[in-house]
Here is the input.
Amino acid sequence: MLEKSYLSFEDIAKEIIINDKYKGLMVQNHHGITRYEHSLNVAKKTYSLTKKLNLDYVSATRAALLHDFFTDYDLEDIKSMNRGKMHPKIASRNAQKYFDLNEKEINAIETHMFPLGLKSPSSIEGLIVNVADTGVAIYECSRFKLNAVVTIWLLFIFNIITFTNR
Here is the structure.
């Protein structure tokens, strides 16, 4: 195995992204893109930040890749308003089922929704996963999801104007 200081993002990600259940995230909508793309975006940001800060970038990157490791089917029995609080535990359970995780990775996955989920990260790496996820989600929603909402509203208004002018 390569020394930790020489692990690229791809070296860390390859074990996770080849998993069949993880590949299922490629068809799950999330913030206007797929949950797979979102997880990769969070993991790349986390990798970059933790590597620059000379932290445990391997554990942080793995946790970031797995922080939303769930499908809509996994959440179907949970009310939509509770999904934000509940999905980290489900993602952690899925991650532990398929991968060997250390305590830092488990905690980072389970606390990535802090402060919505009341449990706070126990490591700086977990805090970085939390911050990276929040920043990436805001960007994705404003870039992809918000644009779709605005487009739908503009089409709706256009149709009303067109219809009333007939």
User: Anything to note?
Assistant: Residues 124-164 form the longest helix (41 residues). The first strand starts at residue 29 and ends at 30.
